[in-house]
Design a protein that fits this description.
Layout: H1 4-23, E1 35-43, E2 46-49, H2 51-61, E3 64-78, E4 84-97, H3 99-105, E5 112-126, E6 129-143
Parallel strand pairs: 1-6
Antiparallel strand pairs: 1-2, 3-4, 4-5, 5-6
C-alpha cells in the first residue's frame, strides 16, 4: 500500500526533475538527486542507460532555446515491502526552437514544438530518498515541427 508520505515524496521528485530539465541542472553529480547509477531513460530519441541517461537527455534538450515541462496527475503505487514503486503522470512539454531550427524552417515557422504525453517510471527508495531507476516518455500528441534532424516524435 502506498503511503501519503511516499506519494508526496515521489510527486516532489517528479516536480524537481521537471524543473531541473528546464533549468538544465544536470552538471556534475546533480543527477544523483534524481536517478540511480543504473538508470534507464526511454525517449522518442532513443534509450539511454547509466551515465548516458542524462547525457542523452541533455543532448535532446540542447536542441532548444528553452523548455517548460509541466506534470500533473501523478499516480504512485508502492510494491510490497515499500522499497520499490511505479509512478505515472501526464505531461505537457513545450519547447522553444533554437536558432538553427528557426533558420532552417524559415521566419514564418512556428517557434514552438509542443508535446502532450505520459511518463511512467520505476523508482527505488535509497538512503537519500526515492530515485528513478527507469523513466519512459510516451508522446500522445504533438503540435509544431520537431527540431531539425529529428523525425516525428
Amino acid at each position: 500500500m502506498t503511503t501519503q508520505t511516499d506519494h508526496t515524496e515521489i510527486t516532489l521528485l517528479v516536480d524537481r526533475f521537471f524543473r531541473a530539465l528546464d533549468d538544465r541542472e544536470f552538471q556534475g553529480n546533480r543527477a544523483e538527486r534524481f536517478l540511480t547509477e543504473d538508470a534507464r531513460m526511454e525517449t522518442p530519441l532513443g534509450t539511454f542507460e547509466g551515465a548516458d541517461a542524462l547525457r542523452g537527455t541533455e543532448e535532446a534538450l540542447g536542441r532548444y532555446e528553452r523548455t517548460q515541462h509541466i506534470a500533473s496527475g501523478v499516480l504512485v503505487e508502492t510494491a510490497e515491502g515499500g522499497d520499490e514503486a511505479t509512478a505515472t503522470w501526464n505531461a505537457l512539454m513545450t519547447h522553444v526552437h533554437g536558432d538553427a531550427t528557426r533558420q532552417m524552417y524559415g521566419a514564418d515557422a512556428d517557434p514552438l514544438f509542443t508535446v502532450g504525453g505520459r511518463f511512467d517510471a520505476g523508482l527505488v527508495r535509497t538512503t537519500d530518498g526515492w530515485r528513478f531507476r527507469r523513466v519512459a516518455v510516451h508522446p500522445i500528441w504533438t503540435q509544431g515541427r520537431p527540431p531539425v534532424g529529428v523525425g516525428d516524435a
